[in-house]
Write the C-alpha cells for this entry.
Amino acid sequence: RCEGRVEIYHYGGRGTVCDDGWDLNDAEVVCRQLGCGFAVSAPSSASFGQGTGNIYLDDVHCTGSESSLFQCRHRGWGVHNCGHSEDAGVVCSDDFLRSLPAYLSDCVLNYLSPKATRLQLVNGRHRCEGRVELYYKGQTGTVCDDFWDLSDAQVVCRQLGCG
C-alpha cells in the first residue's frame, strides 16, 4: 500500500507536514496527488517515524476535493508551532505500482516505493511542463512513452497540482 510520513520536496530539500488538524480529508488529497487511490486513515503523532529538517505545513485544512495539498488552507509556508513528533502520515487504498497503468510499471527505471519516490517534470518552460521523471534512492529515471496518451499526462498533471 501507499503509506508513510507525508514529506514535501522543495528545491532539493525535504520537509514534513505537522499533524495539527490533520484528518481524513487532508489524507484524501495526498493519496489522490500520489495516484494512490483514496485515504484509509490519517495517522498522526509521527506514526511512521519522525522526519528531519524543515516542517513546511501546519494547520492544513483540505475539503477533500483538491488535487494538491498546496491548494488546501494552511498556516503559511514554513510557519508552524510543532516538532517532528507531530509529523502527519497517510495510509492509502492502493499500491503505487498498481495505480500506474500496467504498461508503465514495466518501463519505470528502478523499483518504486511510495515512501521515497518523487515525480517531477524537467526541461520545460515552467514547473508544469517537461519530461516526466521519477526520483528514487538518489537516482532519476524516466517513463517510456509506449502507449502514453492524454489520460496518462492528466494523471501526472493532477499529481503535480498542475490542473
